[in-house]
User: What shape does this take?
Amino acid sequence: MRLELQGISKRFGDLVANDRISLTAEEGEIHALLGENGAGKTTLMNVLDGLYRPDEGTIQIGGSPVHFANPGEAIHAGIGMVHQNFMLIPVFTVAENVMLGFERTSRLGFLDRRRARDEIRELSRQFGFEVDPDAVVGELSVGQQQRVEIVKALAREARLLILDEPTAVLTPQETDELFTVMRRLRASGRTILFITHKLKEVLAIADRITVIRQGRVIGTVQPAQTSESELASMMVGRGVELEVKKGPARPGEAVLEVGNLTVLNDSGRIAIDGASLEVRAGEIVAVAGVQGNGQTELSEAITGLALVIGGSVRIAGRDLTGAPPKSVLRAGVANIPEDRQRDGLVGDFTIAENLVLDVHDEPPYSHWGALHWQAIFGVARERLRDFDIRAHSVQDRVRTLSGGNQQKVIVARELPRRIRLIIASQPTRGLDVGSIEYVHSRLVEARDAGAAVLLISSELDEVMSLADRIVVMYRGRLAGPFETASLTREQIGLLMAGSTAAAERTGETP
Amino acid sequence: MSGNTSPASAEKPARPPFLQRAVAVVLSGNTVTVTFLAFLSALIVGALIIIPATPAAVRAWQSFWEAPGEAFLQSWWAVANAYGSLFLGSVGSPRVILEALGSGRTSDIVNAFLPLSETLVSTTPLIMSGLGIALAFRAGLFDIGGQGQMILGAVGATIAGFSFPSLPAAIHLPFAILAGAAFGAAWGFVPGVLKARTGAHEVITSMMLNYVGLNLLTWLLTTEFVQAPPRDQAISRTVVAAARLPHIAGPSLRMNAGIIVAVLLVLGVGWLLQRSTLGFRFRMIGANRDAARVAGVQIERHFTLAMTLAGMLVGLAGAFMVLGVDYRMSSLYGGTIGFDGITVAILGRGTPLGVGLSALLFGAFTAGGRTMQVNTSIPLYLVQVLQAVLVLFVAAPGVIRTIYRIRLARVGGRVFGGWAG
Assistant: This one.
C-alpha cells in the first residue's frame, strides 16, 4: 500500500514540529525515517496515526486522500503502529491482547478465543514470529512483546506498519531477528515506516532513507549511495566526529570495588544477584546490557539509593555499603542518573539552582544555613559558558531546555567537583549527536584526569567506543570483565542475551 | 514520550501522584491575569446569588412583564448595595476618612478607621495559617490539619495566658505565644513523623487530628483547670492582661500587634524559602522528590520538619486570636481559620507575599461581610461563597482559560508534552 505525504505541517503554539513534510513510501518498501530526538519524527507519526490533525498538507493512501479523526480510523485504513512503549496488558495472554478492542464473539456472546489463537499461529508461521498465543504477555521478553505488537497490527489487517524506534530495547541478535521479520513483511507487499536515529540500522535494512531535521525533510537517499558520516551530517546539519578520540587507559588503584552485591528492586524482587565489579582510577568500565537487567539498581546501590541486602560497596577504600546518598556524594562520586528529568534535575528550578542541587549547603554557596545567591549565580554563569549550555540566562527554568542542554547542566554540576568516581547511567540517551559527542569527550577527559568511570549503557556503539573494559549484565548477574578489544559485537550480543557460552570463547581478564 | 522509558523500567510511575500534580498546578500554573479574571468571575457568580436573596429584586422579577426595566434596576441596586456594603465594611468610606482626619476629633477618626482595623484583625490569623499551609505546599505536602493545629495553638496560648497571673508582660506575652506555637507544632509534627516513619499519608492523618483537636477542646472546656468559673458555660478562663497583645491604634480599635508579627512572619517565611538552605531543600522536595533524594537530601527528616513548622505557623494563628482579640476560648473556637489557610495558600500560590495579599482580601471579605449582613438582607455566607468560587477558579485555571479563551503557551507545551521526536 502506497503512502504519500504532501506538505504536512503541525504547529504547537510558536513551535513548528513538522514543517511541510513530504515523503512517499512505496508498496513493499522499508522506508526509514531518520532524525534526532526532537526532529519531529514522533509528531509526524502521531499525525499518521490519527492522534494529531495536521495544520496543513494531505495524506494519501493507495492514491486516495484520507483524514483521520482518531486512531481507530487510522487502523481501519490499514495503518498499524508499533509504539516504542508497548501498549499491551501484561496480565493478559497474547491472544487476549491481540483480540483487545476487536473482540469477536460466538453466537452466545462468548469471546471467540479459538479464532484469535488460530490467527496468531497462522501469522507466526507466515512471518516466523514464534509467538505462543497462550503465553501471558508479562512473562515474555521485551523482544517477544514487540512481536506481539506486530502480530496485533497484522491481525487488524495493517498494510502499512509504523515501527517507532523498535530496536531501542533489543539485543543485537533480537534486532537481527526483527530485521528478518521486516524483510518477510516487505516480501508480502506490506509497507514499513521504520523510525530510528541509528545509522547502522537504516543502512542495513532500509530501501530508502528520509532524513528530517528541525521538522523539515533534509533529503531522501538510498543506502547504497550514502554513508554513516553523510547521514550523520544530514541529521545534525554539520560534520560530525563519529569516533571517540581517546588514548590508551593508564589505570591506577581500584576506586570502586563492588563485592558480591545483592540488591532488591522497588517491588522487593532480587534485581542484582551477587555482582562483583572493580573500576580503577583512569579507566572507563562499561556495563553493557539490555535495559531492565539490573543496571538501574546497580547505580542506585552504589549511590545509596537502593536497598542492599548483601555484599559490599567500597569507594576509594572506604566501606560505603548502604550509606546514605550524601555520604557517597561527599566521598567524591559524581552521579549522572539514568532518568535525567526524574532523578537528575528539578524542572521548575532555574539552571543556577539546578547547578547546586547537591552542594547548596556547602561553601561558597551558603554559610550558616543562608544561601549566597551571588556566589551561586557567579559560578552558574561560568558553567554556562564553560559547558556551552544554550540558554538565555542562568535564571531560565531547566524544563525549558532541550534534552542535550539539560544533560549538560547535569554534567556541569557533577564533573567540576573533585571527583574520584563517575557513575554515568545512559548518559547520552535521547541526546542529539552533537551533545553525545560532547558528553563522551567530557567522560574521556575525566578519565584522563584520573577519575574512575563506570558507564552504564544499553547502546552497544557507546560501550564499544568508550569503554576500556566491559562487563555485561543479564538478569542481575555480571559477566566479565573483558578487555574491549577482545570482544566482538556478536559476543557482547550473546552475553546480553544471557548466553554464557560466549564468555568461554573469549579471554576473561582477571 | 521521546523514548526515555522502556517497558522494562516502567515499574515506577511515570507521573507523580495526583495530589503532587495538583499542588504543582496551583503553585506554578498561573498568571496575574488568571487571578484577576477569577476574581471578576467570583463577583459575577456572587451577583447571581445576591439578586434572588434580595426581596425587592425578587418582587421586581415577579412582575417582570409589567415593568421589565424595574427588574434590572432593582437587580442592579441589590448588587451595588451588597458590594458597596462589603467595601464600606472592609475599607470604609474615603470621604468619611478624609473628613474625620480634617476635623481632628479622635472619636470621628476611630469610627472612620474602624472598618480597616476590623479587616486587619481578620487578616492576622489568615496570614499565619496561610503561611503554614503554604510552607507545607512548597515541600510537596498537603496539610489539611490546619483546623486542629489552630485550635491547639489557641489552647496552648490560653492555658499559658491564664496560668501565671504574676508574670510581668515582657515575659508572659512571649511565653504565651511560644506555648501556642509549640502546641501547634506538636499537632503538625505528628502527621509529619508518621509520614516519615511509616509512609502514612499526611492528608489522612492531619485531617483525623482535626477531630481529635476539636474534641480535645470540647473536653478541656469542661475541666476545672480550663473552664471559667462558675463553670456553667463552655468558655475557658480568661487570659490575664499581662499576656494580651497591645493595641496599636488606640484602645477602642481592636487592631493589635498581631498584624505586625504577621507581616514579619511573611518576611521570615519568604527568607526561609528563598534565602535559606533549608527552604531550598523544601522547595527541591516539593518540586521533584526523586531528584532531591538523588542529590542527597534526607526526604523523611524534611517531611517531619516541614509539617512541624507548618503546624507551628497555623498554631500561631490560634494563639494570636486568643491573645489579641478574644482573650478566651469557647467551643468550636476559631471558626474555620485552619481551613481558610488552605484557600489563602492556594489563592496566594504558595508564596509568602501571595499569602499576605490573599489573606488581606479574605480579611476584607470577612470584615465587610458583617457590615453587608447588617445593611442588606444578604447573609454572611455570601462571602464564603465568593471565597470558594474565587479559589475554585484559581485552583482550576483551565476553567478560567476556557471561559475567557486565554491561551498560555506553557500550558500548551505541557498538554502536548509528546510533540518532540
User: Anything to note?
Assistant: Chain A touches chain B through 63 residues (CB under 8 Å). The first strand of chain A starts at residue 3 and ends at 12. Chain A has a mean pLDDT of 86. Residues 172-187 of chain A form the longest helix (16 residues).
